[in-house]
Amino acid sequence: MLKITMLGCGGSSGVPLLGGADGRGHWGACDPAEPRNRRTRSSILIQSAEGATILIDAGPDLRSQLLAAGVARLDAVLLTHAHADHVLGMDELRMVNRITGRALPLFATARTLEDVSRRFDYAFRPPTPGFFRPSLDPQVVSPGETVRIAGLDLRLFAQDHRVMETLGLRIGGFAYSTDVVEMPEPAMDALAGVRDWIVGCFQREPHPVHAHVPKAVEWARRIGAKRTVLTHMGPDLDWRWMRENLPAGIEPGYDGMVLEAALHAL
């Protein structure tokens, strides 16, 4: 079995957004009294029964997310794309370097690695004693590949985020898809028959670069997912509203949510 921890499930600005009448946040349609409406930027941990731990995306809330999850050791990081809300926590990885005593493998497409190596050039230099800056070992991957990372086989596929291509991934009966507005046919083929699926869904109405509720529901039905959990949610999506209105088998995620998923497709 795999243990999947949703470190964060919010959009690029989190929930609440900065602002609000009292300066303590703009909640949109979300009830501030519901703790599951408080969302940090989207990221997950994948942990195997053998103890391997893979981080998917390293957003600006990474330090507090790892502390909340009680995780300090990572075997590898995979980036779905280079948008700020998925990479701005990269500097926090230097503490992981100190704990493990080695450079951390960083898997991403060539385009994503080019972007992050330009913005975080110091993280790709030879490591320093004491790891006073992060030390990352870049590994180029491509959609369509099945890549072995920390003892797990990750099947990668391309997703349409309109402004760029993002990576989705599947391990056995589990899949993760964030920051996507359209699913190309090869992605749908890769997802077919998945049992547990986490998918980005930003709001109720159509959005130019993110899936909305009806689209995520349609995808889940088409691929035959038994359980679909929504992530990358904005302030339009109140947790209780979703629990009461989403179809059976589809539910909202929340920060700290833990799923168990089959390592092999059923």
TrEMBL record:
InterPro entries: Metallo-B-lactamas (IPR001279), RibonucZ/Hydroxyglut_hydro (IPR036866)
Signal sequence bounds: none
E.C. designation(s): 3.1.4.55
Gene3D superfamilies: Ribonuclease Z/Hydroxyacylglutathione hydrolase-like
Pfam families in alphabetical order: Lactamase_B_2
Key words of the record: Hydrolase
Top EC group: hydrolase
Keyword Oxidoreductase tagged: no
A GO MF term: phosphoribosyl 1,2-cyclic phosphate phosphodiesterase activity
Hydrolase among keywords: yes
Protein name, per record: Phosphoribosyl 1,2-cyclic phosphate phosphodiesterase
SMART domains in alphabetical order: Lactamase_B (SM00849)
Domain Metallo-beta-lactamase per the UniProt entry, residue ranges: 40-212
